[in-house]
């Protein structure tokens, strides 16, 4: 199996909001093709494209109606083939999103499955009889609120849905289901797809006895550890590896909620022949109040030393026996500089500081669309958001349970709502940020006149060119891919400092995550006698000088 992904940087495209080519307000495949030269200039090696399959769009395409057909608003199958071809011409690989834990309820399999207990597709989903009193089979909750079970009178049974009611979970115990998934993967691989991002792959194997969770106060339905890492998970992934991944030399990244670094070894140790890497949730959920009935909307202040500890633990644990997927942003996470940094006075410095720390680590970095120009969170009125997660949570926690006030909920949405990252890509200072000539599917972030691609490309000192340089370093410096990692100053509340070592090379990565200058410079003991700057976000990197607000640099030992 090839390992090009070890020296690669992957760019995530969220098609709906990337670039609209026909003025209908939705991004589309032609729009992505139009921007391939831009992506080539940035230097990324592959695009992970969020789902573009036919879908009723209840969860923006993570609810698939037909795996073999492109959704009309995104284009046609021919457009997808053209995108693959045009990307390949530019040495850019294409990673598709495999959503195989669930389908749409409008998928033919479910339409048939719900009709009776004895048709061809009856066992494609997870059906259970009601409890004797007619209630749901257990107290499991959906990630998007409410019960994870929905009753269908036609069958006299409940089906399981970890996400919305329109996203029934597939029954991976059924061999035919697994084969269907491998077949559809092969369908796209035959069209040139190079790899897969696997949606909530850690959830595909279920605890099939479906025991109740221990009751918890304030919660009618519970989402917990039994929702993931089920007993046959690794067996299923190994089977998929044998059936499709290995024979086609696919690159893979699994989305693995509930995984710690030890579990990550099970997925990513090459000896086990499962996946290349996984996305962890540990570092991006550090500001969540554990166990709150308001789930992700219950926020606590973020503690910087915890971020260092978590990221470093993943570096240490996977070194030599697994691989990291490095990310701060994606279509489910807010803009990192708005969340934990400064997106106003020091927006550019701050974006570069986060990037320096992430791209200095071992693993495969992911850049989410707009991250490379320092896009920021969108602070909208609640009714201006479109995300089903926000809408469901509002109904459940604000209206029904009254467990959170509207004001506190809105603040939480501004902080961590998914639509923060889903606003249209800001290409220019023109109408609708150059995203569409029509009415955009989601309001454009009003800061687009200041933050846009045209501006970034015209400024040699922009965040864009800083990312470009980091990406270039990843391609050419084996210390980034192979070197050891050691966190320094672990208890320092302002500085993220670590050292990479490879053969006779040493690199020191330093970032001040603070809006103030750090006067007494604690990195002094680690500075090499002779050094040169590899990259720096202020023009005059001097490790001996006080560290300026959000100053970040990498220096290498010379001599
Ligand atoms: C994870 C995806 O990233 C998210 O956007 C989606 O809502 C859920 N999985 C369900 O597919």
Automatic annotation (TrEMBL):
<dbReference type="InterPro" id="IPR017853">
    <property type="entry name" value="GH"/>
</dbReference>
<dbReference type="InterPro" id="IPR045857">
    <property type="entry name" value="O16G_dom_2"/>
</dbReference>
<protein>
    <recommendedName>
        <fullName>oligo-1,6-glucosidase</fullName>
        <ecNumber>3.2.1.10</ecNumber>
    </recommendedName>
</protein>
<dbReference type="Pfam" id="PF00128">
    <property type="entry name" value="Alpha-amylase"/>
</dbReference>
<dbReference type="GO" id="GO:0004556">
    <property type="term" value="F:alpha-amylase activity"/>
</dbReference>
<keyword id="KW-0326">Glycosidase</keyword>
<keyword id="KW-0378">Hydrolase</keyword>
<feature type="domain" description="Glycosyl hydrolase family 13 catalytic">
    <location>
        <begin position="12"/>
        <end position="422"/>
    </location>
</feature>
<dbReference type="GO" id="GO:0009313">
    <property type="term" value="P:oligosaccharide catabolic process"/>
</dbReference>
<dbReference type="InterPro" id="IPR013780">
    <property type="entry name" value="Glyco_hydro_b"/>
</dbReference>
<comment type="similarity">
    <text>Belongs to the glycosyl hydrolase 13 family.</text>
</comment>
<dbReference type="InterPro" id="IPR006047">
    <property type="entry name" value="GH13_cat_dom"/>
</dbReference>
<dbReference type="GO" id="GO:0004574">
    <property type="term" value="F:oligo-1,6-glucosidase activity"/>
</dbReference>
